[in-house]
Design brief:
The protein is built from nine helices and eleven strands. With 273 residues, it is α+β, with helices and mostly antiparallel strands. It folds into two domains: 121 residues, no CATH class; 112 residues, Gcn5-related N-acetyltransferase (GNAT) (Aminopeptidase), CATH 3.40.630.30. The longest helix is centred in the N-terminal third of the chain and has 21 residues.
Amino acid sequence: MQPLIRELEECVVDGWPAAETVELDGWLLRATSGFTHRGNSVATVAPALAGRQPASSDVDQQVALALRLARVEAWYAGHGLPPMFQIGPASLPTELDQTLAARGYQRTGEALLAVATAEELIEATQHKHGFEVSVSSSASPAWLELGTQAGRLGTYPAAYQGVLRRLGSRCRFVLARDAKGTPVASCLIVSAEDRLAVHSMVTLPSARRRGAARAMVQALARAARGEATRELFLLVETDNEPARALYTKSGFRELYTYHYRVLASAGDAHAAV
């Protein structure tokens, strides 16, 4: 399980590029104006850089970790952001979460990763619906307008559009229209290695519980199958029970959870995923 989790965690980092990144002994420091925990935290999946000599004793290791943490805190202070770490099953060093807690970092933003193959999603979403779903390589005005109305695009338009620019041709834009041709739901899918990440799924309140989201899942799964994608994954906050129920019903399997450690309560303003 651990190698698979490490692979997926690397895809998560790769599939949501921050505006600014700096590598520090294998960690990746990320900063993006506003918006998400992921774009403003330290990715802790990678081990220490190859070729570095490990500390010779437990005390030396603790000192080395303390120095790294101090450098992280100084870097985020220079960006006007609270220092924050993304912590999951593959985070290194293994004592990092405990060390951060002892240092005063608060736990926040618990989320989970779920996976499925395209065939699993297609099988689970075989149902009749009255929606027309398109999957495009460019963001249409209708897709952007829906994101402005009901999604994160409206809350952090500059930051979100910056992510889209950095992703470039890796994006696919999914849009569902009802029987009248009105856009009612959308999501973003992003290629990450040989997987596809599902992001930013949103449905207008007037169209919820009518099958629009599942119709989009089926359409994006068929697109993934056409691209011979290994599997798809998504991230969702653990306390978002309606979304979790929808994704499970649509064929996704919850695989593992992760959380963040932040040194200031200001970090809670960002979205966990």
